[in-house]
Amino acid sequence: MQVHAAADGGLARVRLPGGRLPVPALAVLRAAAADLGDPALELTSRGNVQIRGLRPDASPELAARLTAAGLLPSDTHERVRNIIASPLSGRDGLGELDVRPVVAAFDAGLCADPALAALPGRFLVTIDDGRGDVSPLGGDVGLHGDRLLLAGLPTAGRGGDNPAELLLRASRAFLDERAAQGGTAWRLAELTDGPARVAARLGFAPGTDVDQFVGSPGPAVGRAPQVGGLVALTVVVPLGLLTPEQSAALVAAAPGEIIVTPWRTVVVPDVPVEEAGRLESLLTTAGLGTDPATPWAGVTACAGRPGCAKALADVRADARAAVLSGLDHALPVHWVGCERRCGAPKGRHVEMLATADGYRVLS
């Protein structure tokens, strides 16, 4: 497991393809964070989880625990398993197809192909069931329904009976074009005429800028009806930091799994209607936002001080103070500690940028 050095200790990122996290694995993550580092779990803008503040000797123990929980299926491909999918696909009756099997098949095929271990760590795959929630998030390769996207642009490619194989072919074509252009690009869009050239390698016509999808910002906070008479509960995790109390509440509340989204929310699916009120109360008591009117919705922040040596402020503390004092915002608000702007959401938002002289407000 690759652990990165941060100002507050080691940082480990745990990839969750499609954001899916079984309750037993969440319990393992919760215990590992408490035993080996900072007990709060950090949600990322790619629907993954990070553990911060790891001790220098913690990496082998953490890797062993995560491997036993099924969270590290590949020693060689872990850093390239960056897969975002429509969180409610196959559950709420919307979308063109259930993408959960596509995510599983692509992840398995990715880990089985030694060549794909060479993908850059920033390479992102988006698998959208056609509702338009994750297609706008800037994937390198992706599906919108069964239509192939390259750098967010639709092509003439169709997934047909094996959409996962089309994504694998597109990922290999990216590597081939990347090698032809010098082998240094992190993202498909960084290649010269990247979408067109990768599409040509696959035998498809490229898309154009006017074909870009404008979709929804993920599941709305609160209850969503599922097929079969169940409901899904979407809750806001304030500033993307899942405290031990909150993770314990999710372990107690979720019937089988949770889904971590790219919007710093968590979905608890498959909840019986008669249990929904009790579980909402449990999650609210733990400090999670269950009401669509929660002031935490759309407020995010980078790590800031003390976790990041480049940060000029403790942006999470400042963001928390602003929310608690009645921050009013029509657009998402993202607080950042330096010009790198880590974790910024896609689309229009207000940016609170820390400087040596205080915050600069940008929109």
CATH topology category name of the largest domain: Sulfite Reductase Hemoprotein, domain 2
Number of helices: 8
Q: N- to C-terminal separation? A: 38 Å
So, the CATH homologous superfamily of the largest domain?
Answer: Sulfite Reductase Hemoprotein,Domain 2
Shape verdict = globular
Q: What does this entry show, briefly?
A:
With 363 residues, this protein is of the alpha+beta class. The chain contains eight helices and 19 strands.
Tell me about this structure:
With 363 residues, this protein is of the alpha+beta class. It folds into three domains: 137 residues, Sulfite Reductase Hemoprotein,Domain 2 (Sulfite Reductase Hemoprotein, domain 2, Alpha-Beta Complex), CATH 3.90.480.10; 123 residues, no CATH class; 64 residues, 2-Layer Sandwich (Sulfite Reductase Hemoprotein, domain 1). The protein is built from eight helices and 19 strands. The strands form four sheets. Strands 1-2-5-4-13 form a five-stranded antiparallel sheet. A five-stranded antiparallel sheet has the order 3-14-15-12-11. Strands 6-7-8-9-10 form a five-stranded mixed sheet. A hairpin with a 2-residue loop joins strand 18 and strand 19. The longest helix has 18 residues. The protein is globular, with a radius of gyration of 20 Å. The mean pLDDT is 94. It comes from Dactylosporangium maewongense. This is Precorrin-3B synthase. Pfam families: NIR_SIR_ferr. Keywords: 4Fe-4S, Heme, Iron, Iron-sulfur, Metal-binding, Oxidoreductase.
